[in-house]
Design goal:
Helices cover 80% and strands 0% of the residues. The protein contains 18 helices and no strands.
């Protein structure tokens, strides 16, 4: 089989660039419009959007389906293309449901008549999550099929980098399409501009997905020559994943750490852009630039961690440093609201992005130490499922805490809406900072030597009983 060259790796990375653009549309634009412009409760907005994260278990089914049932003559490419097209169409449908929800609220006010539209929006995002699973899991499997031990690490590194590039590209597209909007724009103008954005950007993403994968599978795939695919992430069942997570004391501690870390890292996903709008008076096109600052910081953090930090201070110290740095930056994000200076907020978000990069790479390399070769694919697959569920929960939790903070502020003001919701947002960022400190405490109890001594037998016994 021909070896995957650097140009082909970059070409495959373009697919991840498209996923970065789509993530910006949902978490960077749509949630801002719902919470800030349309005044939808943050818990409702974040909860509806987070539904797509909770569809992550569908990756198991789609991965196994792509293993056994070719689509359009391809094991992977057919699912990738159909999935990305479904994502594009579903994202536009979601926007239309949001406008109907807004019309219902504007006509009668928030009440029971809005719930059917909220339920429909959640259903649309569930379909969006299925489409994401249908395209991303076969794509991950394709990366395994076309690579070997020598090329896989470079291919994954390029994929991470291109995901961040996609977020930055999405910011540019959004800024260009929405540049005509002002703070006093009418809802009709907002609708027209957002509709145009959700036509242009997904169309670009579909083109990128097809261009990046067309012909790759036929030329480079080693699927048929490999006899065993059972331990990849797409072969992990819930029952098997739970057995892996609870196989030994050290696995339980490590996954508790990952759960707390993920919750603390992603709680601001659905509220950062509304924070820029409500507290700083930033336009929609301006708040999307927060994602560019975060993405650029994450990319720098990953590079610095891999080449400089981990080799010098070790993996556990790197993660501890990342948690402390993240807690500090979250505090600065809160304090930036007192100044109401967007530049201060942008700098704090950039710093938080660096912390996210440090934590992402630090947790991954630590996870590779906390596994056993015989069940590596299963173990990493279980981590992937746990992280996806934790991220969805973090999005909902962030919206819920924000709503709770707003309700408390209104109650303290004798039911009069306060002039600033800064304390409500600070409550979310403060909980994230506290979570980072809890994660440090959990990580201090993780013992790599104990894991390597005991986990192999515990995991083998768990999987044996599962097969029985």
């Amino acid at each position: 089989m021909p070896t995957l060259g650097i140009l082909s790796m970059l070409r495959l990375g373009v697919f991840n660039m498209g996923l970065g653009i789509m993530s910006l549309l949902t978490l960077g634009v749509l949630n801002r419009v719902m919470i800030d412009e349309l005044q939808v409760p943050a818990l409702v907005a974040a909860g509806a959007i987070a539904v797509h994260q909770f569809m992550a278990p569908a990756r198991i089914w789609f991965g196994q389906l792509s293993d056994t049932k070719p689509l359009f003559g391809h094991h992977r490419s057919g699912y990738i293309w159909l999935g990305i097209l479904s994502m594009a169409l579903t994202s536009f449908v979601a926007v239309q449901v949001v406008w109907r929800l807004n019309a219902s609220i504007a006509e009668i006010g928030w009440g029971s008549q809005a719930y059917p539209w909220v339920a429909l929006l959640a259903l649309v995002f569930a379909v969006y999550g299925l489409a994401l699973s249908a395209t991303s899991t076969p794509f991950t499997a394709l990366l395994v099929d076309v690579s070997d031990e020598q090329t896989r690490s470079r291919l994954i590194g390029i994929g991470w980098a291109m995901l961040m590039v996609g977020i930055i590209t999405g910011v540019i597209i959004t800024s260009v399409v929405l540049r005509s909007l002002a703070l006093d724009s009418s809802i009709e103008q907002v609708q027209a501009s957002i509709n145009r954005l959700f036509i242009i950007a997904p169309t670009i993403v579909c083109g990128l997905a097809i261009a990046s994968t067309y012909g790759i599978e036929q030329k480079y795939s080693r699927l048929r020559s490999r006899s065993s695919l059972r331990d990849r992430e797409d072969g992990v069942t819930f029952r098997r994943a739970l057995k892996i997570l609870t196989a030994s004391r050290q696995t339980g501690l490590f996954f508790a750490f990952l759960l707390v870390l993920s919750l603390s890292l992603f709680m601001q996903d659905a509220i950062l852009e509304p924070y820029g709008g409500e507290v700083f008076g930033m336009l929609i096109a301006e708040t999307t630039q927060l994602n560019a600052a975060f993405g650029m910081g994450t990319l720098i953090g990953i590079i610095l961690t891999g080449f400089w930090v981990v080799p010098r201070i070790g993996k556990k110290r790197t993660v501890n440093l990342g948690c402390l740095w993240a807690a500090l930056c979250l505090g600065l994000i809160s304090l930036s609201g007192l100044s109401a200076q967007p530049a201060f907020l942008m700098a704090a978000v950039f710093g938080f992005g660096i912390a996210a990069g440090v934590l992402t790479l630090g947790a991954i390399v630590l996870m590779l130490d906390l596994t056993v070769a015989e069940t590596a694919g299963t173990f990493i697959g279980a981590w992937g499922l746990a992280q996806a569920i934790a991220r969805g929960s973090a999005t909902v939790l962030g919206g819920g805490v924000l709503d709770l903070g707003k309700a408390l502020l209104t109650e303290l003001n004798n039911s009069v809406p306060p002039t600033s919701y800064l304390p409500a947002y600070a409550l979310v960022f403060g909980l994230q900072s506290l979570g980072m400190l809890v994660a440090i405490g959990l990580l201090s109890r993780v013992n790599i030597e104990e894991f390597q001594a005991n986990a192999k037998e515990a995991i083998a016994a768990a999987l044996a009983s599962d097969m029985d």
